[in-house]
Amino acid sequence: MRIEDAKILAALPDLRIDRVEGASLSNYTSLGIGGTTDLLLIKCHASIPELVKMLDAAGYAHKFLGGGSNVLIRDGELPWVMLHLVKPEPEVRLDGNFAYVDAAADLGRTVTFCAKNNLGGMEGLIGVPGTVGGALRMNAGAYGIQIGTYVREVELYRAASRSLVTLKGDEIHFEYRHTSFALDDIMLAVKLELPSKPFKEILNGIRICNEKRRSSQPLNQKSAGCIFKNPPGASAGRMLDELGLKGLNVGDARVSDRHANFFVNAGNATAAQMLSLIDTVRERVRQSYGITLEEEVVIWK
Ligand code: EPU
Fold first, then answer.
1. Residue whose CB lies within 8 A of the most ligand 1 atoms, among 128, 139, 217, 235, for a mutation test
2. Taking a C-beta distance cutoff of 8 angstroms, is the pair 83, 38 a contact?
């Protein structure tokens, strides 16, 4: 979708928003898949209410893209404008055991920065790609750790009230790959409280998690991490593996040979091919196990 409204185009510089006209979102997602649309790069959180108000008034639908590492975006010209936060400098500010982190900050870099300052707890999240905002919205987790445990405050744009709000940690509900944030809330910043730990000890935890991840996940291929959530008490990856689905493909969309719950883009996969593979695999699991797997990856059709 291209913005043609003259009033909006004229207002963007004052709002400190850059427009990338007709951006191919395949360049902004870890899967390397996604259609084209105008991408608005937001450098100032305070501009969001005014921007959304103008887009709504002119009839432009919008969505918000974080790090693009857990999303499958449809092909072709997209019927919405894409909003994206630009990282500020610095991304993280520390005060005692509290870390104040911008939502656009890279999660891995944040974990490392805190570690260097003897703040631990998030070791398991080290190899999780994407931004802190994306991790927060999904309550990203790995190796027994989830980010929600450390959240004390979140600043967000709340679409329902069209305003910037701050929520205390106990006002937010975190569960397995799910939070109480509304779908159209935009994460802006978070205050984390992290336990003190010597850097060497944290580094050791990070190394162990990195090794486990390298040995079990296809890190050198384009993917969006795990495609399905684990059903209660079971592992989607193991089920798919048991069914012999590794290597199954629709075009260049392929079930990884290394971890069956990772679907990789082995070349020029389209969203349509990836969606078809997801449906085929889900159906195979339903027939064999009587379980309907839910997607872990966010799908924008
Ligand atoms: N397994 C197989 N074959 C496979 C994949 C896994 O037999 O192809 C077996 C493993 O050997 C293991 C069990 O299944 O015994 C569980 O596998 P793994 O330890 O890889 O964990 P997972 O449940 O598949 C979850 C998260 C990952 C996270 C890891 C590590 C979900 C859907 N996945 O995977 O998160 O990195 O644990 O904590 O919760 C993601 O969210 O995108 C993601 C990759």
1. 235
2. no
